Structure prediction request, 188 residues.
Amino acid sequence: MQKLGYKIAPYTDVIIFMVTLLVANYFWKFTVMGDEAGLDSTVTWFGLNITAPFDLLSKHIAACVYWIVGLFRDTVVMKGDHIVGFQNGHGSSIVWSCSGLKQMFIWLCLILTVRGGWKHKLWFIPLGWIICHAFNILRIAIITLFLEFHPEWFTILHDYIFKYLFYGMMFLLWVWFVERIRGPLVTE
Prediction:
Protein backbone atom coordinates (compact mmCIF):
# COMPACT_ATOMS: atom_id res chain seq x y z
CA MET A 1 0.00 0.00 0.00
CA GLN A 2 2.89 2.33 0.75
CA LYS A 3 4.26 1.76 -2.77
CA LEU A 4 0.95 2.92 -4.22
CA GLY A 5 1.22 6.12 -2.16
CA TYR A 6 4.64 6.85 -3.61
CA LYS A 7 3.43 6.15 -7.14
CA ILE A 8 0.45 8.51 -6.98
CA ALA A 9 2.19 11.23 -4.91
CA PRO A 10 3.16 13.30 -7.99
CA TYR A 11 -0.48 13.26 -9.10
CA THR A 12 -2.07 14.15 -5.75
CA ASP A 13 -2.93 17.73 -6.73
CA VAL A 14 -4.51 16.63 -10.03
CA ILE A 15 -6.50 13.88 -8.26
CA ILE A 16 -7.75 16.43 -5.72
CA PHE A 17 -8.66 18.76 -8.62
CA MET A 18 -10.65 16.06 -10.42
CA VAL A 19 -12.49 14.87 -7.31
CA THR A 20 -13.27 18.44 -6.24
CA LEU A 21 -14.51 19.35 -9.72
CA LEU A 22 -16.83 16.34 -9.84
CA VAL A 23 -18.13 16.70 -6.28
CA ALA A 24 -18.71 20.48 -6.61
CA ASN A 25 -20.41 20.05 -9.98
CA TYR A 26 -22.77 17.33 -8.75
CA PHE A 27 -23.45 19.14 -5.48
CA TRP A 28 -24.52 22.17 -7.54
CA LYS A 29 -26.62 20.08 -9.93
CA PHE A 30 -28.52 18.42 -7.10
CA THR A 31 -29.01 21.45 -4.83
CA VAL A 32 -29.46 24.48 -7.11
CA MET A 33 -32.71 24.19 -9.03
CA GLY A 34 -34.12 26.35 -11.77
CA ASP A 35 -35.61 26.22 -15.23
CA GLU A 36 -32.68 25.92 -17.63
CA ALA A 37 -34.86 27.08 -20.54
CA GLY A 38 -35.47 30.36 -18.77
CA LEU A 39 -39.26 30.22 -18.84
CA ASP A 40 -39.35 30.49 -15.05
CA SER A 41 -36.50 32.54 -13.63
CA THR A 42 -36.91 31.26 -10.06
CA VAL A 43 -33.76 29.64 -8.66
CA THR A 44 -33.74 27.70 -5.41
CA TRP A 45 -31.11 26.13 -3.17
CA PHE A 46 -32.45 23.49 -0.78
CA GLY A 47 -35.87 25.09 -1.38
CA LEU A 48 -34.75 28.64 -0.52
CA ASN A 49 -35.32 31.27 -3.19
CA ILE A 50 -31.90 32.55 -4.32
CA THR A 51 -33.04 34.15 -7.58
CA ALA A 52 -31.85 37.72 -6.89
CA PRO A 53 -28.07 37.32 -7.48
CA PHE A 54 -28.66 35.21 -10.59
CA ASP A 55 -31.08 37.75 -12.02
CA LEU A 56 -28.80 40.69 -11.24
CA LEU A 57 -25.77 38.99 -12.79
CA SER A 58 -27.72 37.83 -15.86
CA LYS A 59 -28.86 41.42 -16.51
CA HIS A 60 -25.29 42.68 -16.09
CA ILE A 61 -23.95 40.02 -18.45
CA ALA A 62 -26.63 40.79 -21.04
CA ALA A 63 -25.71 44.49 -20.94
CA CYS A 64 -22.00 43.68 -21.32
CA VAL A 65 -22.67 41.25 -24.17
CA TYR A 66 -24.86 43.84 -25.90
CA TRP A 67 -22.04 46.39 -25.65
CA ILE A 68 -19.35 43.96 -26.93
CA VAL A 69 -21.48 42.65 -29.80
CA GLY A 70 -22.33 46.27 -30.67
CA LEU A 71 -18.64 46.90 -31.29
CA PHE A 72 -18.79 44.41 -34.18
CA ARG A 73 -22.39 44.48 -35.40
CA ASP A 74 -24.69 47.49 -35.76
CA THR A 75 -27.66 45.15 -36.11
CA VAL A 76 -27.64 44.13 -32.43
CA VAL A 77 -30.72 44.90 -30.34
CA MET A 78 -31.53 44.49 -26.64
CA LYS A 79 -34.89 42.91 -25.93
CA GLY A 80 -35.83 43.39 -22.31
CA ASP A 81 -33.20 42.80 -19.66
CA HIS A 82 -31.95 39.38 -20.72
CA ILE A 83 -32.11 38.99 -24.49
CA VAL A 84 -29.40 40.17 -26.86
CA GLY A 85 -30.51 39.67 -30.42
CA PHE A 86 -30.29 40.92 -33.93
CA GLN A 87 -32.71 42.60 -36.30
CA ASN A 88 -33.16 39.28 -38.11
CA GLY A 89 -34.71 37.76 -34.97
CA HIS A 90 -31.80 35.56 -33.90
CA GLY A 91 -29.95 36.04 -30.63
CA SER A 92 -29.20 34.88 -27.10
CA SER A 93 -31.33 34.73 -24.00
CA ILE A 94 -29.07 35.13 -20.99
CA VAL A 95 -30.88 33.07 -18.34
CA TRP A 96 -29.91 32.39 -14.71
CA SER A 97 -27.66 29.46 -15.60
CA CYS A 98 -25.58 31.78 -17.85
CA SER A 99 -24.58 33.85 -14.81
CA GLY A 100 -21.31 31.97 -14.26
CA LEU A 101 -22.07 31.57 -10.55
CA LYS A 102 -21.76 27.79 -10.85
CA GLN A 103 -18.25 28.12 -12.24
CA MET A 104 -17.38 30.64 -9.51
CA PHE A 105 -18.63 28.18 -6.89
CA ILE A 106 -16.54 25.40 -8.45
CA TRP A 107 -13.53 27.75 -8.54
CA LEU A 108 -13.97 28.49 -4.83
CA CYS A 109 -14.08 24.74 -4.07
CA LEU A 110 -11.01 24.06 -6.23
CA ILE A 111 -8.87 26.63 -4.45
CA LEU A 112 -10.18 25.78 -0.99
CA THR A 113 -9.25 22.12 -1.47
CA VAL A 114 -5.82 22.64 -3.06
CA ARG A 115 -2.99 21.84 -0.69
CA GLY A 116 -1.13 24.79 0.77
CA GLY A 117 -1.54 27.77 3.04
CA TRP A 118 -4.08 30.57 2.99
CA LYS A 119 -1.66 33.41 2.23
CA HIS A 120 -2.19 33.25 -1.54
CA LYS A 121 -5.63 31.62 -1.59
CA LEU A 122 -7.25 34.71 -0.06
CA TRP A 123 -6.36 36.93 -3.01
CA PHE A 124 -6.35 34.27 -5.74
CA ILE A 125 -9.98 33.23 -5.14
CA PRO A 126 -11.37 36.70 -6.01
CA LEU A 127 -8.93 37.01 -8.93
CA GLY A 128 -10.27 33.69 -10.25
CA TRP A 129 -13.85 34.97 -9.89
CA ILE A 130 -12.99 38.08 -11.91
CA ILE A 131 -11.33 35.99 -14.62
CA CYS A 132 -14.29 33.54 -14.69
CA HIS A 133 -16.72 36.45 -15.00
CA ALA A 134 -14.75 38.08 -17.82
CA PHE A 135 -14.38 34.76 -19.64
CA ASN A 136 -18.11 34.11 -19.26
CA ILE A 137 -19.01 37.48 -20.78
CA LEU A 138 -16.58 36.92 -23.65
CA ARG A 139 -17.93 33.38 -24.17
CA ILE A 140 -21.54 34.57 -24.42
CA ALA A 141 -20.59 37.50 -26.67
CA ILE A 142 -18.78 35.19 -29.11
CA ILE A 143 -21.68 32.73 -29.15
CA THR A 144 -24.12 35.60 -29.74
CA LEU A 145 -22.04 36.96 -32.62
CA PHE A 146 -22.18 33.59 -34.36
CA LEU A 147 -25.94 33.31 -33.84
CA GLU A 148 -26.82 36.21 -36.13
CA PHE A 149 -26.02 34.15 -39.22
CA HIS A 150 -25.74 30.62 -37.79
CA PRO A 151 -28.41 30.03 -35.11
CA GLU A 152 -28.12 26.27 -35.72
CA TRP A 153 -24.61 26.40 -34.21
CA PHE A 154 -25.93 27.32 -30.75
CA THR A 155 -25.91 23.81 -29.27
CA ILE A 156 -22.40 22.91 -30.39
CA LEU A 157 -20.99 26.29 -29.35
CA HIS A 158 -22.78 26.51 -26.00
CA ASP A 159 -23.01 22.90 -24.84
CA TYR A 160 -19.74 21.57 -26.15
CA ILE A 161 -17.05 23.97 -27.33
CA PHE A 162 -17.37 26.86 -24.87
CA LYS A 163 -18.43 24.73 -21.90
CA TYR A 164 -15.21 22.75 -22.12
CA LEU A 165 -13.14 25.83 -22.93
CA PHE A 166 -14.50 27.36 -19.72
CA TYR A 167 -13.42 24.37 -17.65
CA GLY A 168 -10.11 24.21 -19.53
CA MET A 169 -9.49 27.87 -18.65
CA MET A 170 -10.27 27.10 -15.00
CA PHE A 171 -7.84 24.17 -15.08
CA LEU A 172 -5.07 26.36 -16.53
CA LEU A 173 -5.76 29.01 -13.89
CA TRP A 174 -5.60 26.31 -11.22
CA VAL A 175 -2.30 25.00 -12.67
CA TRP A 176 -0.94 28.56 -12.56
CA PHE A 177 -1.88 28.74 -8.89
CA VAL A 178 -0.39 25.33 -8.01
CA GLU A 179 2.80 25.73 -10.02
CA ARG A 180 3.59 29.44 -9.70
CA ILE A 181 1.61 31.06 -6.90
CA ARG A 182 1.31 28.46 -4.14
CA GLY A 183 4.95 27.54 -4.21
CA PRO A 184 6.46 24.22 -3.19
CA LEU A 185 4.89 22.27 -0.36
CA VAL A 186 7.01 21.52 2.64
CA THR A 187 7.04 17.75 3.07
CA GLU A 188 8.45 15.65 5.83
Observations:
- Residues 60 and 81 are 9 Å apart (CA to CA).
- The first helix runs from residue 2 to 8.
- The chain has one domain: 2-181.
